[in-house]
Design a protein that fits this description.
CATH architecture of the largest domain: 3-Layer(aba) Sandwich
Number of helices: 13
CATH topology of the largest domain: Aminopeptidase
Oligomer: single chain
Largest sheet: 7 strands, mixed
Shape: globular
Helix content: 25-40%
């Protein structure tokens, strides 16, 4: 989703009544008992706008969500949520949280002390949502046997912009970013389940999670998804953090299926991830959108004569796998005859420094935060081992523009090359956490917790002061099992 979502209170005017009625008809069948079977929607729209509170979420001048209720009982000081619904395609972005937060603010301003509501007893996802946001089950004063009665005490300390404790599954915890992801989530009070394709004794971080499981290989897609679903059901997991590219690619296509089971996969949408994966399409897309800091890129199958030196890499390669510089025509001719040209791209070879940027974009507010580093040493797989934290306004502005145009959600990793003459060119976008994620945390920004905020409707933190420093990574050995002689 690209662009801003606005939350506002509707006014009691004819045009707004008509818009509200139209929206309520569009979500009528989303309720366990259709709204039209309980009220006359047109009359209800007039009544609620006259006597109640109507909050709507709008995107590109379209109503995509609404919360309707009353906050005028000065005897009991009890507000009431009557109807709350979102268009199906906009669920999972935290819009419900924003509407509910706005309603709480209005209720407090109107002198209300509590908010109550009913939801059907089988609506597990709604019940969990309300409980995450301060509601508790109470005895039902109305004796509605098919419903759950929930009440929120508005006088309790309001912890704004804090992620409630959640159960979170982190995959591939043998990967580079796993340690800082697990440590950060646990430090915020979350229950962390970890999985990896390797057995527990082979994975040091398997001993740092609350529960570990050995996962099936991802090439058996149905078995892998069934494993995710079973694990999430067993531990009541609502958020999944995939850490490797193959998992991101697969789960991006399963987000809607998993969301129906109240499992939020914390990654960008499938369309955005597909664009990031194809380096040639990404280059063309950005050029067409006025971003010229990209390396001219062509499919190798379309190039018979190449200007040397050139750089060859897989279309959707990961890390530095399959990448190589080509300096003479014989070598290029050999490559053309020995590799699948339709799976590779060709770019001009540029000498320079690698710049890596952890980029976090809030899909609701369009706020983007960037933490950049210059890689001084990196290993053969492309992971920085010694880096310098930098601040570069030109680079940051470029990242913000790219993140918004591509439609990034949450935290991802941009890689650039800084040529010897100071020009900056985008190399690739990895739509996942970077292997050097902890560098950004050491520099002063909590990427992991702010990534979670992008999927729970919380506002991400402002960038603040980033510490300039050089950071060197070291590796540490752990004994995971003693074997008897």
């Amino acid at each position: 989703m690209k662009g801003n979502i606005s939350i506002r209170k509707m006014e009691n005017v004819k045009s707004e009544v008509e818009r509200l009625s139209e929206f309520l008809y569009s979500i009528d069948r989303a309720f366990f008992i259709p709204l039209s079977e309980k009220v006359n929607i047109d009359s209800y729209a007039v009544k609620i706008l006259t006597k109640g509170v109507v909050l709507i979420a709008e995107f590109e001048e379209q109503i995509i969500g609404s919360l309707l209720g009353y906050a005028n009982d000065q005897t009991s000081h009890m507000a009431y949520i009557s109807t709350f619904g979102l268009l199906e395609s906009y669920r999972g972005y935290g819009i419900g949280y924003l509407l509910l937060s706005a309603m709480k603010e209005i209720c407090i301003e109107n002198g209300m002390k509590y908010i109550c509501l009913y939801t059907h007893k089988t609506n597990d996802s709604a019940i969990r949502f309300y409980k995450r946001n301060g509601f508790v089950e109470k005895d039902d004063p109305g004796n509605r046997n098919d419903d759950v009665y929930l009440v929120c005490n508005l006088l309790l300390k309001n912890k704004k912009n804090v992620n409630p404790k959640a159960n979170i599954l982190v995959t591939a915890i043998g990967s580079y970013s796993a340690d800082i992801v697990i440590k950060t989530l646990k430090s915020h009070g979350h229950y962390v389940v970890g999985c990896d394709i390797n057995p527990k004794e082979w994975v040091a971080d398997a001993y740092n999670v609350n529960q570990f499981y050995q996962a099936p290989y991802i090439n058996d897609k149905e078995k892998y998804i069934a494993f995710i679903e079973k694990t999430c059901e067993k531990h009541k997991i609502e958020y999944v953090f995939p850490l490797t590219d193959p998992e991101v690619d697969l789960l991006s296509h399963e987000k809607d299926r998993l969301f129906e089971k109240n499992i939020h996969v914390c990654i960008s949408n499938a369309q955005t991830i597909k664009l990031c994966r194809d380096k040639c399409q990404l280059s063309t897309f950005l050029l067409n959108h006025g971003i010229n800091n990209v390396i001219p890129t062509k499919y190798m199958g379309d190039v018979d004569i190449v200007e040397l030196p050139a750089f060859i890499k897989p279309i959707s390669g990961r890390s530095s796998e399959g990448c190589r510089a080509v300096f003479d025509e014989k070598e290029y001719a050999y490559l053309k005859d020995t590799i699948s040209r339709n799976k590779y791209i060709v770019q001009p070879y540029i000498q320079g420094n690698i710049l890596t940027v952890d980029v976090i974009r809030d899909p609701i507010t369009d706020e983007v935060v960037c933490i950049a580093r210059r890689e001084l040493l990196r290993n053969k797989s492309g992971a920085g081992t010694t880096v310098e934290i930098i601040e570069n306004m030109e680079l940051e502005a470029l990242c913000i523009s790219i993140a918004r145009k591509v439609g990034i959600i949450g935290a991802v990793n941009f890689e650039f090359i800084e040529s010897d003459d100071g020009e900056i060119y985008l190399l690739e976008i990895n739509p996942r956490f970077s292997g050097g994620l902890e560098f950004s945390h050491l520099a002063g920004y909590d990427v992991v917790n702010n990534h979670l905020k992008c999927f729970t409707g919380k506002l991400i933190d402002k960038k603040g002061l980033i510490k300039r420093m050089i950071i060197a990574r070291k590796y540490e050995e752990y004994v995971t099992q003693y074997i008897d002689n």
